[in-house]
Specification:
It is a single chain. The chain is of the alpha+beta class. The protein is 24% helix and 26% strand. It has two domains: 2-312, Cupin (Jelly Rolls), CATH 2.60.120.650; 327-425, Recoverin, domain 1 (Orthogonal Bundle). It has helices spanning 2-8, 72-81, 101-108, 131-137, 166-169, 332-343, 351-368, 375-382, 394-398, 402-416, 418-425; strands spanning 14-16, 65-66, 86-88, 112-119, 123-130, 143-148, 158-160, 172-180, 184-185, 189-190, 194-209, 221-223, 229-231, 251-257, 261-264, 270-285, 306-308, 316-319, 322-325, 348-350, 391-393. The strands form five sheets. Strands 1, 2, 3, 4, 5, 6, 8, 9, 11, 14, 15 and 16 form a twelve-stranded mixed sheet that branches. The protein has a three-stranded antiparallel sheet with strand order 10-13-12, with no helix packed on it. The two termini are 35 Å apart. One of its GO terms (molecular function) is oxidoreductase activity. Its cofactor is Fe(2+). Residues 138-302 form the JmjC domain.
Length: 426
């Protein structure tokens, strides 16, 4: 998930090199869980007090499903422009090679991945370890993997063709791979990006809240620098006295199993619970300006339902455990395109969003080259509107002069190629 990998650069990264002694009990791997829950009413206390999220109100109905053969334009009009979640079943194949623990460990065990552990139920801390060590621990310990998928694994991972053309193709940000064991609950959250979440193995239950008629402020929110919103509600033990609002907000549900995908538009609040051994892929996409119509000249008539993930042009890739821009050559127009992607569907690009992007893209270079201009230096040049230091409008972004964009493009390109310089110098 985006947040966790974003947090990564702000925390001191903790490296774990040894397996724990395995003294914890194995987790419960049962896949047969009743969901949505059957509510238990008691006279004296509010419904769902000290129960998991979802026990505070009866679910309205399952999330809408649509056909596997849906055309990209339909997907755009009904769900992206329409701001609606949708389930598509059977969209990704059962994995060509069975991703058993021993296969993953043998083939990809040396790769470094990002792993999250839950602290005091409310905060996820990120640690980095090899996939092999993760696989030795995850069936016992309180941790799950969520990593931008390493390039080496992409040829075995599916990318639905639905989002690999037209307006969608240029907005692919990053594919995140999840592996967990036992019951693992996410926090209640809303992403700043559109997400297509696909289950490759196991089971995931989703709760989606519908806020169309009220404000989510009562959720006790924390805003991340990348724009994502997290709620402080303890999703395993909800305080229904404090969060009375949960009795009033309608929610919808979906259970995804192997092959199923769920589209969740940006800023829709949701919570996820995985059961058993679960492997899932979530693909983040920058929300388009929904006033624009779908452009799909390059969309094939009857494409294969999926291709391999390495066919997708994602903005980010993962190398040496950190994010890098995928492009190796970054032109002025690429630099402008990155800025426009940061806008999503908004008309203003805020400084903190730019700063976060710049940190992510130049993290390693900035450590090596102390003379590198900072995000603030660049912002001052990009934003020459003195009345307005906090944001740049869409129309201004489209007309930033080339010489200023060139500076940004040069820095981004140098950062993207940082490991090529390593090799060159060797
Ligand atoms: C993983 O990280 C360790 C520690 O920094 C490093 O020595 C190793 O080369 C990395 N492995 C890969 C495949 O990048
Ligand atoms: C979609 O719905 C959510 C929740 O109601 C809202 O916060 C968000 O602004 C909406 N997005 C669009 C594109 O209308």
């Amino acid at each position: 998930m985006l947040l966790l990998t974003f947090l990564l650069i702000q925390l001191k990264i903790i490296w774990i090199f040894t397996a724990n002694d395995g003294s914890n009990f194995p987790k419960d791997m049962n896949l047969y869980v009743t969901f949505p829950p059957i509510l238990e009413r008691r006279e004296s206390i509010p419904l769902g007090h000290l129960r998991p999220l979802g026990w505070q109100r009866r679910a309205e109905s399952p999330i809408l499903e649509d056909s596997l053969n849906m055309e990209p334009a339909r997907f755009y009009h009904l769900y992206v422009q329409g701001n609606r979640s949708v389930v598509i079943r059977g969209m990704v194949p059962s994995l060509d090679v069975l991703w058993t623990d021993s296969y993953l460990s043998k083939t990809y065990g040396h790769l470094n991945v990002t792993v999250a552990t839950r602290k005091q139920r409310l905060v996820d801390t990120l640690i980095m370890m090899s996939l092999e060590i993760f696989l030795e621990q995850y069936r016992h310990d309180d941790l799950y993997m969520n990593t931008i998928i390493p390039d080496e694994m992409k040829h075995e991972t599916p990318l639905p063709s639905l989002i690999n053309c037209g307006t969608f193709r240029d907005r692919l940000l990053e594919p995140v791979l999840w592996i967990s064991a036992g019951d693992t609950a996410s926090l209640l959250l809303a992403h700043s990006q559109n997400t297509l979440h696909c289950v490759l193995d196991g089971r995931k239950d989703f709760i989606i809240y519908d806020f169309s008629n009220q404000s989510p402020r009562d959720f006790d929110l924390i805003r991340q620098t990348n724009g994502d919103l997290y709620s402080r509600i303890d999703v395993d033990l909800v305080n229904a006295y404090k969060y009375k609002c949960l009795h009033n907000i309608p929610w919808y549900w979906a259970t995804l199993r192997e092959g199923d995908c769920l589209f969740i538009p940006a800023y829709i609040f949701h919570q996820v619970r995985a059961h058993g051994r679960t492997i899932a892929l979530s693909i983040d996409m920058a929300p388009p300006d929904t006033r624009d119509d779908f452009i799909g000249n390059d969309c094939e008539k009857n494409p294969p339902i999926y291709v391999s993930l390495n066919k997708g042009q994602f903005q980010w890739r993962y190398e040496h455990g950190t994010r890098h821009l995928s492009k190796r050559t970054i032109t002025i127009e690429d630099a402008r395109a990155y800025l426009l992607l940061l806008l999503g569907r908004n008309d203003q690009l805020y400084k903190d969003i730019f700063r976060e992007f710049f940190h992510q893209a130049t993290y390693e270079l900035a450590k090596q080259d102390l003379t590198l201009p900072t995000a603030n230096d660049l912002w001052k040049q990009l934003n020459n509107d003195e009345n307005n230091e906090e944001y740049i409008t869409r129309s201004r972004l489209k007309s930033i002069p080339s010489n200023i964009l060139q500076l940004l493009a040069d820095i981004l390109q140098k950062s993207a190629r940082i490991h090529e310089y390593d090799k060159f110098e060797l």
